């Protein structure tokens, strides 16, 4: 978490350079949304979103990204309703309906966090 804090990126305004990456990821992978998410000790904060508007952060314990950061090769969830880590997640069962394929890949700061 020290690297996340040292990067001074949390709670900063949107930036076109990050938005270009999420737009590109959404297009390349043919998905309905793409995010650049920073995970800190108690939340996941969205630096950039494409296809998910009006949400800037979620609690860490309800997030997919909090799991993805512990998967060095990335994480793919074919159906969140059938994955015991996410089946009762409010973002899967509620209005967001994040049921279909989800994937995430961690990015490291200078110190590896």
Tell me the major beta sheet.
Answer: 3 strands, antiparallel
The averaged pLDDT comes out at: 84
N to C succession of SSEs:
HHEEEHEHE
Question: Which runs of at least 5 residues are low in confidence (pLDDT < 50)?
Answer: none
Distinct helical segment count? 4
**Largest sheet: spatial strand order:** 1-2-3
Silhouette: globular
Structural class: alpha+beta
User: What share of residues are in beta strands?
Assistant: 15-25%
**Structural Rg:** 14 Å
Helix fraction, binned, reads 10-25%
Distance between the termini: 7 Å
- Say how many strands there are: 5
Care to describe what's here?
The radius of gyration is 14 Å and the shape is globular. The mean pLDDT is 84. Helices cover 24% and strands 20% of the residues. The protein has helices spanning 2-6, 16-29, 65-68, 90-93, and strands at residues 34-39, 43-50, 57-59, 75-77, 102-104. The strands form two sheets. The protein has a three-stranded antiparallel β-sheet, with helices on one face. With 113 residues, the chain is α+β, with helices and mostly antiparallel strands. The chain is built from four helices and five strands; from the N terminus they run ααβββαβαβ.
